[in-house]
Design goal:
OB fold (Dihydrolipoamide Acetyltransferase, E2P); Rossmann fold; 711 residues; 26 helices; 6-stranded parallel beta sheet; binds magnesium ion; 21 strands; alpha/beta; binds adenosine-5'-diphosphate
């Protein structure tokens, strides 16, 4: 059915529906369709309007078949020359279509007898689809098609055809039809106040030359034939920018509301003299850096207040975040509360446990480690220590927040390497630690610097501290890029470094996400390296080893008994062995910059010169070369994060789990970066002068998604 046919039928009976009606009120929306739409967060007619096209097709012209090339999406028209059912591996229907300039094969794997009859020789068809195959063998698989009764050069569609994000089982054409119905509803004045009313202050619209909301929506759903397709696709079109601005604004508003909401909650105030912290700092073998001191003070001030702290500490790898966390923990303990320290991996949890325990035990404080796989008896002892309040500090992975873990008086949660946990987990954690009307304070630490624009959009509910200084005496890490073919030189280098008394890491990576395969690769590499470097003590560390084995290997490496540690990326976060002076990363081209930077941060922790060798498989793409060069040329995590954001988009920086935020409808965090500060100013203006518009604006874009439940 053509779009126009849907429009005219829909407009016959527009009564009884408005933009705020549930989608079920639309024609052709039954229970099943409702369910499909709900997966796309579409529940009301208005939600359909805010479901924006991801791209457009130009169906305004019919293309001659002779001019088609593989990869084209085209409208063609011609006569059926031959139709047959063929049995290859599967049954399929093949139809040959010609228009005098050339011929093409239409291929259908699913077809009915009726469809087969409709494709008899001599029938004129109009088809739309993607062209595949090579010269002389072009084909379209499952094209959209209909009978064409007269030859015509004009296509069916008067303008560009929008393509929407869909979900399995929902066809483009069905969704398009529903959106046409929604557009019809939007034209009809509705009784309940106009949901598409302008919510941006006139001064903001004028200053940023933003058009009108309703016009922009209409334009994006139905761009006229003369629309600048390129601008629509690359997002620079003023109509899309208008919507992007409002969407970014809505996200910022929702996070600011979330933050304001937290300030109404209560938390235990740790107004203590700070004796424990003073004793801890005095006992350290080094003095905290100025940056560490500043951040410790910022946290201290937060913790003295009777409202939950929500603070993010950013500090490059090796900047000394653990000391800062320990200082915060001690403030909680001195006030008689417990603290939970959460790490993303077992390995890191073990290391934190060892560090924190060694610092706190001399102060008479009991720290326990709740490992994911500890023996039942050990676990129940640890649980009892936490429940009774005897253990003031518990360290672990997210296993800390399992149902059976009950704290006597949890007052502070420290989350290390937060980007791996994600926004949703952060909110879930907040709820989990809640005790009646009281929330624990939250301290989140990340080594992945978050560019300011991203901070404003994704983390606007957090206060932020930055440790912008490394401890003195650190040597910058020299980074080199080497093809895999020069492995022999790399081995020589490993031998050299170890002969000088330093230690080395050899990191194995794979494309496959499969942990099993990664571990296998590390296993094989370690065997190989043992053969070619027989005079070195080679160790192996991967995620599938038992916690006790891992601990033993780490202890041996730390103690110097292992000279070369072959590992998977489990060592990415936090592992701290100052005597390690060389890191080899295999298949470096496959990892994100942020991840490579993290890995590299494992060396350069002592006072000796250190190096990192990025080994790649040829050929290296131009983009790949640029990425590795970026890493070689700078050791500044913030600069690397900025380039990563440019090259790979926010998903990489935020981590896969945070993809939720990347699902913006109109905006793109990279492309629309320069709108973000403007949207931030506008958010402040609205909160101050037009607070009644905030709720409608947030709901318009975010609906009632759970993460914004507090709005
Ligand atoms: P990260 O910020 O990457 O988590 P860590 O907390 O693991 O860094 O600290 C890295 C190393 O630096 C540790 O060995 C730690 O003891 C040491 N360190 C921390 N602060 C200082 C300091 N002010 N001076 C010297 N060494 C420090
Ligand atoms: Mg750390």
């Amino acid at each position: 059915m053509t779009v126009r046919a849907v429009v005219s039928r829909a407009s016959e009976q527009p009564v009884g529906r408005s933009l705020s009606s549930p989608v079920g009120r639309l024609k052709r929306v039954g229970a099943h369709m409702e369910e499909l739409l709900a997966r796309l967060e579409i529940r009301t007619v208005q939600d359909l309007l805010f479901h924006l096209p991801i791209r457009y097709q130009d169906r305004t012209r019919v293309s001659p078949i002779g001019a088609l090339q593989a990869g084209d999406e085209a409208v063609i028209e011609g006569e059926v020359l031959l139709t047959e059912v063929r049995y290859a591996r599967r049954r399929m229907l093949l139809s040959r279509l010609g228009d005098g300039t050339g011929a093409i094969t239409l291929r259908f794997f699913h077809f009915s007898a009726r469809q087969q009859e409709g494709l008899t020789r001599g029938t004129r068809l109009r088809c739309y689809g993607e062209v595949r195959g090579g010269p002389g063998k072009l084909e379209m698989a499952h094209p959209e098609y209909r009978r064409a009764d007269a030859v015509s050069e004009r296509a069916d569609e008067p303008g560009l055809t929008p393509i929407y994000p869909v979900t399995a089982g929902l066809r483009q054409s069905s969704l398009r039809g529903l959106i046409v119905q929604a557009l019809d509803c939007s034209a009809v004045a509705s009784g309940d106040g106009d949901p598409l009313r302008e919510l941006l202050p006139g001064e903001v619209i004028a200053r940023h030359e933003l058009g009108e909301l309703r016009a922009a929506l209409l334009y994006l759903h139905r761009p006229p034939p003369e629309a600048d397709l390129q601008a629509l696709l690359d997002g620079s079109h003023p109509m899309r920018r208008r919507l992007a601005f409002e969407e970014l604004l809505a996200h910022q508003l929702s996070l600011r509301m979330l933050r304001a909401g937290m300030q109404h909650h209560r938390a235990p105030a740790f107004a203590v003299p700070g004796e424990l912290r003073a004793r801890f700092l005095a006992a350290l073998p080094f003095a905290p850096t100025t940056a560490q001191r500043r951040v410790i003070d910022e946290i201290e001030a937060d913790l003295r207040r009777p409202h939950p702290m929500q603070r993010l500490v950013q500090g490059d790898v090796g900047s000394g975040k653990t000391v800062v966390a320990a200082a915060a923990v001690l403030q909680a303990v001195e006030a008689g509360c417990q603290a939970a320290v959460m790490a993303p991996t077992e390995l890191l949890a073990e290391q934190h446990y060892r560090n924190i325990d060694s610092w706190l035990r001399p102060l008479g404080i009991e720290v326990i480690h709740l490992a994911g796989k500890s023996r039942a008896s050990a676990r129940s002892l640890a649980l009892e220590a936490v429940r009774s309040g005897r253990a003031a500090v518990a360290v672990g992975t997210h296993a800390l927040f399992q149902q059976d873990v009950v704290f006597a008086a949890l007052g502070l949660v420290v989350v290390d390497e937060q980007h791996r946990f994600g926004v949703h987990q952060r909110l879930a954690l907040r709820e989990k630690g809640r005790d009646g009307g009281r929330y624990p304070h939250q301290l989140i630490m990340t080594a992945t610097p978050i560019p300011r624009t991203l901070m404003m959009t994704a983390y606007a509910d957090l206060d932020c501290s930055v440790i912008d200084e490394l401890p003195p005496g650190r040597q910058p890490v020299t980074t080199v890029i080497v093809p895999e073919t020069r492995r022999a030189e790399v081995l020589e280098r490993v031998r050299d470094v170890c002969r000088r008394g330093q230690q080395a890491y050899w990191v194995c990576t794979l494309i496959e996400e499969s942990e099993a395969l990664q571990c296998q690769a590390a296993q094989e590499t370690s065997e190989l390296l043992r053969e070619v470097l027989p005079d070195l003590a080679v160790g192996l560390l991967h995620g599938r080893m038992k916690p006790a084995e891992k601990e033993a290997v780490m202890a041996a490496f730390k103690g110097g008994a292992i000279q070369l540690l072959v590992a998977t990326t489990v060592i990415e976060v936090g592992v701290d062995v100052p005597n390690a002076g060389l890191m080899i990363i295999e298949n470096a081209e496959r990892l994100g910059l942020a991840q490579l930077h993290q890995l590299r941060g494992r060396v350069g922790r002592g006072s000796e010169k250190s190096a990192c060798v990025l080994m790649y498989h040829s050929p290296l793409s131009e983009r790949g070369r640029l990425r590795l060069a970026a890493l070689r040329d700078t050791g500044d995590g913030f600069e690397i994060a900025r380039r990563d954001l440019e090259m790979r988009g926010p998903g990489e920086i935020l981590g896969v789990r945070q993809a939720g935020l990347a699902q913006l409808r109109a905006a793109d965090l990279v492309r629309d970066q320069e709108l973000i500060p403007a949207a931030g100013q506008c958010a402040a203006l609205l909160l101050e002068r037009y607070p009644e518009r905030v709720g409608p604006l947030v709901r318009r874009w975010l609906g009632d998604r759970p993460r914004y439940g507090a709005v």
